[in-house]
Write a structure and sequence with these properties.
The protein is an alpha/beta fold. It contains seven helices and 14 strands. The strands form three sheets. It has a five-stranded mixed β-barrel with strand order 3-4-5-7-6. A four-stranded mixed sheet has the order 1-12-13-14. The radius of gyration is 25 Å and the shape is elongated.
Length: 416
């Protein structure tokens, strides 16, 4: 039998170096205090974003525009005015704990809802002193309507106050963040850097994915593929695991009649995740964010996973346990994103259906979670609102969606 002679390529590739800056400290909770009222975060948001809007108003409607308080509109009936305030959507179908308690006494159970938009919804603009109902009959297009706005958005509207107290909107302006002017660096084609985003591992609920995840780890390690593939993999400088690593659904409620094994499964999944992170962190920089039902607090911003959950992987300085939402810089590029709750909430309370369209709206609004704390739980901040988007990111991501999509956002000048 002839002897087989193999020609094995022993080429070694070095992982590319890169600059990384964690900027998620704004989401870290210090001196935690849940006794405060949520009015503080709305008040601070209005003050901060009003300053942004004043510049946008001058750019859109010209310098010298007069901006009125809502309490001054009674003297401007029939005259065109510009006002700034916080949007509030009055929605009859919106979940309410008081409504839930009252429905417990009804003989006929109420069907659960996942969408809370109806034709009876109303939009109100409010500032520190007053409220005024808005009507969009004066708009020439549908770019602003009941169906595509959220409670908590700060907006400037131009329109005409009516005798009945309503304000007819003829134009509007969002506090869309501007892109920062950065020095361009010239790089050769061989100096590329790659960031890999992955989410929805669901190790506790989807055992079938475990093999796929291990194959992913082996690919990052450079154990799969040919020389060309491994050369590309060596340019991966960071892996971002963006939420729902343990599960994407809540644990079952305990029932004394049933044997519930969710908790042991979660323990095993955390151990498995620690093993995977240990392998990844030994060869590449890793960020891990929590998701909606991962083992951390439920309110936004979700704090980073506790170090004790990953005893093996935490030995590596290349493992970064970060918050949700998360923001950071790689090679001077600003990246902002979340684990999916932001888009899911907008899907429930508007008629927007495409996650890409929702993400585009979020950037226009200049706020990652405008509906917090009205329809999504968040920490009662005082003197700050970390969810304000002050600078247009180079990359904006939302993970744990039904499919992968990308889009390029441009402004009126054709760049962003």
């Amino acid at each position: 039998m002839p002897e087989f002679v193999g020609n094995y390529d022993q080429t070694e590739f070095e992982r590319s170096s890169f600059n990384y800056a964690d900027m998620s400290s704004v989401f870290h909770l210090k001196d935690v205090n849940y006794t405060r009222q949520f009015a503080h975060i709305y008040a601070y948001r209005l003050v901060q974003m009003r300053e942004i809007l004043h510049l946008k108003i001058q750019q859109k409607w010209g310098e010298g525009c007069d901006i009125y308080k809502l309490s001054e509109l009674h003297d401007k009936i029939g005259e065109e005015c510009i006002i700034v305030g916080t949007l509030f959507k009055h929605q009859e179908l919106k979940p309410s704990i008081l409504k839930e308690i009252s429905e417990e006494n009804n003989l006929i159970p109420q069907p659960p809802r996942t969408h809370f938009v109806s034709d009876t919804d109303e939009v109100i603009l409010e500032d520190e002193l007053q409220r005024v109902p808005l009507t969009f009959d004066g708009l020439n297009d549908n770019s602003l309507s009941l169906n595509n706005i959220m409670t908590g958005c700060i907006i400037a509207v131009k329109g005409i106050p009516q005798d009945g107290g309503k304000f007819v909107v003829v134009d509007f302006c969002w506090p869309t963040p501007s892109a920062a002017i950065k020095a361009l660096t010239t790089r050769s084609l061989g100096d590329d850097r790659f960031l890999v985003l992955i989410s929805g591992l669901e190790l506790a609920t989807n055992v079938a994915t475990n093999l796929h995840v291990q194959l992913f780890v082996d690919w990052i390690y450079g154990l799969l593929g040919d020389k060309k593939e491994n050369s590309k993999v060596s340019k991966i400088v960071q892996v971002l695991i963006a939420g729902n690593s343990i599960r994407s659904t809540p644990m079952k409620k305990p029932n004394y009649r049933d044997k519930i094994d969710d908790f042991p499964r979660d323990i095993q999944a955390i151990k498995h995740l620690d093993d995977l992170l240990f392998q990844l962190a030994s060869t590449v920089d890793v960020q891990i964010m929590p998701g909606e039902f991962d083992p951390t607090d439920r309110t936004l911003p979700q704090q980073a996973f506790h170090r004790c959950l990953f005893p093996k992987a935490s030995e590596y300085s290349s493992l970064h346990r970060v918050t949700n939402p998360n923001q950071f810089e790689i090679e001077g590029h600003l990246i902002i994103g979340s684990s999916g709750q932001t888009v899911q909430d907008v899907l429930r309370f508007t008629n927007l259906e495409d996650p890409i369209d929702i993400m585009d709206k979020i950037l226009d609004w200049g706020h990652q979670i405008p509906s917090a704390p009205d329809t999504i739980p968040c920490y009662p901040f005082e003197g700050q609102d970390p969810f304000i988007i002050k600078e247009m990111p180079d990359v904006f991501f939302v993970s744990n969606q039904q499919s992968f999509q990308t889009s390029l956002k441009t402004n009126g000048s054709g760049n962003y």
